[in-house]
Amino acid sequence: MDLRRLACHLGFMATYAPDSRRISPERFASISSDDRWRLELVDGRLVREPRPAALHGAVVAHVYDLLRAHVDAHGLGRVVLETGFLLPGVRDTVRGPDVGLIGGDRLPTTVPPTGWWELAPTLAVEVISPRDQWHTVQGKVADYLKAGSSAVWVLDPVGLRVLVHEANGTVRSLGGDDHLDGGAVVPGFRVPVAELFRVD
């Protein structure tokens, strides 16, 4: 399916509000937010997104559990939830994927006590909501890949679909009857797409 047609099928709508003023990552680190918003820094501009709904949170937690169990069992790195990444090669941008995997080959020996991981996650997972705007989702994917992520998985809990974006530019669309294979990014990981959205 063409990606633009898929975006229309998923029914994306505007969700985020960028601030027109540019700030540095250091200034961003000092900003506090109330529980209504999630914050990211994109090209030096503060981006506010509404807190996700219950289905989004349930899917994120389930995918985290699945990935962490596999990664920990095979010593493949560290899986994190909603953690900031200061992306190298992407000007003044701090992204916070719903789930991130830092592969063992790029995992620092210590966890930063303050600030963010100053690297790209090996794998970034974004769970979308019907309120998300397609170009916003694509912007996140592009930033991760530009910074050096090996893959980005975009999960649609309503349509029960996954878009797999890989560093070589390929994009695969998987439905509920397909299997998501971690390939070289998460060796040995394989799960039915439908299982990713099983939250009951």
Keywords summarizing the entry:
6-stranded mixed beta sheet, 200 residues, 26% helix, tt1808, chain A, 3-stranded antiparallel beta sheet, 13 strands, 5 helices, alpha+beta, globular
Note the topology.
Layout (H helix, E strand, L loop, with lengths): L2 H8 L6 E6 L2 H5 L7 E6 L2 E6 L3 H21 L2 E5 L3 E2 L7 E2 L3 E5 L19 E5 L6 H14 L3 E6 L4 E6 L4 E4 L4 E3 L8 E3 H4 L4
Parallel strand pairs: 8-9
Antiparallel strand pairs: 1-3, 2-3, 4-7, 5-6, 7-8, 9-10, 10-11, 12-13
What does this structure look like?
- It is a single chain.
- Helix content is 26%, strand content 30%.
- With 200 residues, the protein is an alpha+beta fold.
- The protein has a single domain, classed as tt1808, chain A, CATH 3.90.1570.10.
- The strands form 4 sheets. The chain has a 6-stranded mixed beta sheet with strand order 4-7-8-9-10-11, with helices on both faces.
- The chain starts with a helix and ends with a helix.
Shape type: globular
The CATH architecture designation is Alpha-Beta Complex
How many helices? The count is 5
Low-confidence stretches: 1-17
Question: What amount of the residues lies in strands?
Answer: 25-35%
Distance between the termini: 29 Å
- Rg calc: 16 Å
**What's the number of structural domains?**
1
Q: How is the CATH topology named?
A: tt1808, chain A
Helix content: 25-40%
CATH top level label: Alpha Beta
The overall average pLDDT, rounded, is 85
Largest sheet composition: 6 strands, mixed
Element-level helix/strand string: HEHEEHEEEEEHEEEEEH
- CATH-assigned homologous superfamily: tt1808, chain A
SS-based class? alpha+beta
What strand order characterises the main sheet?
A: 4-7-8-9-10-11
Number of separate strands: 13
